[in-house]
Amino acid sequence: MKSQSLSSASQVVWTFRQAGTDEWMPATVPGGVHTDLLALGRIPDPFVADNELKVQWVAEADWEYRGVFEASPGGRMFLVADGLDTLAEVYLNGQRLGETENMFRTYRWPVDGILRSGQNELRILFRSAVKYCLKRNAEKPLTPKTGMSLEGSVFVRKAPCHFGWDWGPKLPPIGIWRDLRLEQYASARLEDVHLRQQHRNGTVTLSAAVRAERWDNVHLVAHLKVTTPNGRRTYETHLPLEGNQGQLAVRIRNPQLWWPNGYGEQPLYDVEVSLEAEGTVQDRKQVKMGLRTVELVREPDAWGESFTFVVNGVPVFMKGSDWIPADSFPTRMSEAQYEHLIRSAAESHQNMLRIWGGGFYEDERFYDLCDRYGMLLWHDFMFACYIYPHDEPEFIENLRHEVNDNVRRLRHRACIALWCGNNEMEQGWADWGWTNPNDPLRVLEREAYEKFFYHTLPEWVHELDPDRPYWPSSASSNVPFQAPNSPERGDMHYWDVWHGRKPFTAYRQQFPRFMSEFGFQSLPPMETIATYADPEDWNMTSYIMEHHQRSGNGNGLMVAQMTDSFRLPKDFPSLSYLSMVLQAEGIRYGVEHWRRNKHRVSGTLYWQLNDCWPVASWSSIDYYGRWKALHYAAKRFYAPILLSIEDQGALMEVHVTSDLTEPWQGQVRWALQTLDGETLRSGEVAVSLAALQSAKVCSLDFQTEIEATLDRKREVIFVADLYQGEKHLATSVATFVPNKHLKLVEPGLNVQVSRSGKQAIFEVTAHSLARFVELKLAGADAIFSDNYFDVLPGRKVQVTCVLPQGWTLAQVKKALRVQSLYHSFA
């Protein structure tokens, strides 16, 4: 098999134009109309100010792409498109090959007799998905109006969030968004390869079910070769095919198992399946595979039914977040940007991401990184929050191809733990007023929903990928329309703190079996705000700041919750800082509670990891890759050994939670002390944990001490430190009053800066309590080993960062910016 890329990087000359006009402009493939127009200076940057509104015409128009390329036809020739976005007609040398209606599908057209030797012309006409959706919605309105997304977007198989979401803009891309190529075969090709693994008694049987497409009667032989991760050993077998199908297998004794992040290594075996005819390779498929088992254990227990992921026989508490598309224009995503996000998740001890159903099936770079970093995936299919036309046979047939393409493409991946039908559609039917027995269309669609997500889709998935669990919806109890957010079974989305304006303490009243969504918003860092808002717009209720806030009264909700915890900030940069600290504190509060109860709760995925544009949102990493306070907090609250305090007025309970697969011993040293460091009462307690255990190690009542004087509770804090031997692992601080009522004074922060190799070292001290200390380097996006941390008087906190390229120590000292909670209002 030979493959010829038709991308711009392969010397193909691509141009594009608005349909009905004469001007052809240079284009980039893969790419899109918005990014091409932006590169040519024809539209303003839609991420700046309110420019999004000025470019709506782009998605409302039809567009045409033209590619001119050289070819040398021979054998069987196919044009293969991995991603056309979305409604397209494809012409080669003036002959119509077909049309597309699904950005998630791979389309393949035979081009024998059409492809010429020498120069060829490929033209692709894209029709406006926006106009199509509005037309279909006028004919058959399905979902109640929300204003969040384009009405009728459910009728086209395109990323739902492209039409707007409560964190994203309305900028539907249009164009050739994935690889486009010619494939050339002689006698046969591999139509399908299904790799499976069976684990038994320390041996893995790795099998390959092969299906070939052939064009003559030559004798075909399938080969399977598996090479160990270190390349030192190879397992091989071959099989003459009877007809077009066959199954091969090798046995791997003492396999190197693949583990989630934090539980072991991620060795990947090289697997090659090839197809030969008369000694000549006709086609081959090469992948990397991690050998592991994943089960979703759902068993009756004292609280209902468990929901625990078990990997290689070990129950794993899932620590993670929800993933959304990382750019509104996905072709702009580089491998370096993908790696930064996945590596950042791994560095914060996450072991699972949920691929949210309002985006798209990611490309191979993303899954490669998840395999490498041990990042398990809860993988939604691409349905979210709306009623889809599952009653239409043509729609179902389109979905069948979509599911077939993507499950077959991804089923060998070690990282994928579960297939999930959709995001929050079941909740819509159960709780959002979609159900209406007096509306025949609603009755029909409700029945169609149940048929598709409880019967049709799981049957497809089981046929294609029988070794992975399937879950109908997130959130769901696995019973159609019944208690999709049940605390007794299934997974939960808990939004009463954000949308319901409940305090963070409400998290402690929830005991889900698996928390797959919960979150709280923050502003991004000021460096990001400055990319879309001028200083005159740096106000929470300004037009531009509200334009970059898509969750209704989101800015107001942030400020309201902020006043519960903090004093009003002195300026807008302090507001940005406080919003991030508030977000981090809220999510920490919930995660620590659920990890303390890991015998009952089996995982937490906070909403959300990342952004698709610069915006106020629930993310822990902003659009430009900058870590917010939440991501630093996640590195602490997702640590393998977690120290946490359950504060109940004057009562302080100290807990230690272990994700280690072996016993752990250490000590907790605690103290009641004043803000300037005077110790009023202290103690030490030994900690001995079994593998994977969480335990309360002490309970302390300070009623007498905090009521000694009228203001005493404003002047003291409770501090717990976790040690293993003399190695200090963690510090946790709890207060007896909200942070806004603490009698904080100027902490006298001092930072000594030094250098060791390529690292800058910062030693931070204070003469009084400094809460949520933030370090920044002006002019550099530095990621520190820790940030937004507490500094206690008489102690030294050491953090590091990679020295910005080309910087001297003097430059670091000059660029260093330090602030704390006190400085946000004083």
UniProtKB/TrEMBL annotation:
Signal peptide coordinates: none
Residue span, Beta-mannosidase-like galactose-binding domain: 14-178
KW Glycoprotein (keyword) present: yes
GO MF annotations, alphabetized: beta-mannosidase activity
Annotated Mannosidase Ig/CBM-like domain residues: 652-741
Catalysis performed (reactions): Hydrolysis of terminal, non-reducing beta-D-mannose residues in beta-D-mannosides
Record-level GO BP terms: carbohydrate metabolic process; glycoprotein catabolic process
Alphabetized UniProt keyword annotations: Glycoprotein, Glycosidase, Hydrolase, Lysosome, Secreted, Signal
EC number(s) given by UniProt: 3.2.1.25
Residues covered by the Beta-mannosidase Ig-fold domain: 744-823
Secreted in keyword set: yes
Alphabetical list of PANTHER family matching this protein: BETA-MANNOSIDASE
Family classification: Belongs to the glycosyl hydrolase 2 family. Beta-mannosidase B subfamily.
Protein name (record): Beta-mannosidase B
Species of origin: Anaerolinea thermolimosa
Lineage: Bacteria, Bacillati, Chloroflexota, Anaerolineae, Anaerolineales
